[in-house]
Amino acid sequence: xxxxxxxSSVPMAGKEPTVPEGLWIKCDACGxxxxxxxxxxxHYKCYKCGKYFRISTRKRLRLVMDKGxxxxxxxxxxxxxxxxxxxYQEKIESLQERLRIDEAATxxxxxxxxxxxxxxxxDGRFLMGSMGYVVGEKITRAVERATEERLPVxxxxxxxxxxxQEGIVSLMQMAKTSAAxxxxxxxxxxxxxxxxxxxxxxxTASFAMLGDIILAEPGALVGFAGxxxxxxxxxxxxxxxxxxxxxxxxxxxxxxIVERENLxxxxxxxxxxxxQVDPKxxxxxxxxxxxxPCAAEEEKSSQGDAYTENTSGKKRFSRADSxxxxxKVLPWERVQRARAQDRPGALDYIQEIFSDFTELHxxxxxxxxxxxxxxxxxxxxxxxxxxxxxxxxxxxxxITRNFGMPSPEGYRKALRLMGQAEKFRRPIICFVDTxxxxxGMEAEERGQGEAIARNLFxxxxxxxxxxxxxxxxxxSGGALALAVGNEVWMMENATYTILSPxxxxxxxxxxxxxxPEAAEWMRVTAGDLKDLGIIEKIIxxxxxxxxxxxxxxxxxxxxxxxxxxxxxxPMDGQQxxxxxxxxxxSM
Length: 587
Ligand SMILES: [Zn+2]
Prior knowledge:
Layout: E1 24-26, E2 33-35, H1 36-41, H2 57-64, E3 71-73, H3 88-99, E4 105-112, E5 115-122, H4 133-148, E6 153-159, H5 167-186, E7 191-200, H6 201-204, E8 213-216, E9 222-223, H7 227-234, H8 245-250, E10 256-257, H9 260-273, H10 295-298, E11 306-309, E12 315-318, H11 319-322, H12 331-339, H13 346-353, E13 355-359, E14 372-379, E15 382-389, H14 395-400, H15 408-423, E16 428-434, H16 441-445, H17 448-459, E17 466-475, H18 476-480, E18 487-491, E19 495-497, H19 501-509, H20 515-522, H21 526-531, E20 537-539, H22 550-568, H23 573-585
Zinc ion binds next to loops.
């Protein structure tokens, strides 16, 4: 817990830029003299160096709320002075008068681009935004009332931590606010925390880190113990950028960093995306008339069906045509196609199939794994959680994405997003494309096996529809960890295996060179797996997928996904879990 006193080691006092009165202000970061009106126009950012100025509650509310839309809640709660700390009451009163705010937190109900929300703003000018009884009480009451009125909550955090002048009472505010947020969450309601500079101590260790979505302003300092406290404790200099928003993103602790000018837009968009999906309402805007043929009946053939446009221009599946191109493709050739460098990846399909895809980051524990991408997009107006394993297209990207081999953090990110999908009743679509889970020392240290097992365990009874599509390589457990679906599909040239044909050949015959032969034995192709009853559907590739035909293939995939959602969205949670259980139970 951070100490709060004037001589404290809290790293916020003095050095950071603030906006004083007058026409001109000086940026403490770059030393430039700035015209105040221009700074205001620039969303209170230095227009020379980009440094964010800390802003007052009033300015913050003006930046995010619709003009004249909000009312303040719970002003004037009497302060408590449990320690009878000298001059504490006088200090509070003088701050109230000078800053013209009630306390270090202000809670309002209003609208953001027309979306109703409860918004709490912490103000660093008021005793460093520290949390005492009144701050805890105001936030708790706001969250409780939001729960009653079924409203989303947004909290802008800015705090040096718990308020030392109130001793242990201050500490209890951490538990009190967190408990209220738990009830809000259990009611299926949406909470966004926005971390601003600085957020430390007891606020970080309570409501700041509990958002369904956690956003941060660029460069914001966020940590439990402040950097100077850490440096004094471990007697080492901390690296540049330590505990800044960018550091947090890289370490999987936040979903994203948002520029101030995009904040209002982003908040409104996220609120809309997190409305719970009503199966009866979902997909209605563009609802198409399907004769919803039974998937099993339609695809008795084990080989990929041809997707054609007939004379009436309507797309349909036709088995007659598939004979034409039934030139024998060897399994080993399919393995090569599945691994092809230019084969479209998860993000290519996501961009083609879903609109307004918003990527979310991090496992909230250790890192943001580039080998797994995830977020929320729309299909015909229905919000969908989309998760995919992603390889790189260039060497540089392959390093970021670890060649599509997820680490435990990747699986934990996926599971975190699936949990949210369940909370907000969104269907889940997974794109599987990995040579396998990352095999390395660090992955083992952090529990690769546990991470995969946990996904199998938790995915098995998710109460929303889950569809997994193998788009390239389905490498063993690393693939299965995203493929516990109500249905699993494969692209015509995708493979799904217990291990690579090379590995199989070297284990069985001590000769990796016999991989092509192994591919025959192992039954790795979509056709084989459909025969074995491991998958439900094959997405045809009239030509092997490549950047030129990705749009066309994605179009077919989208059509099939629609069909899937129409079939599964009306099912209730228990039915969905039971169907998925029986699917794997029969194998
Ligand atoms: Zn500057």
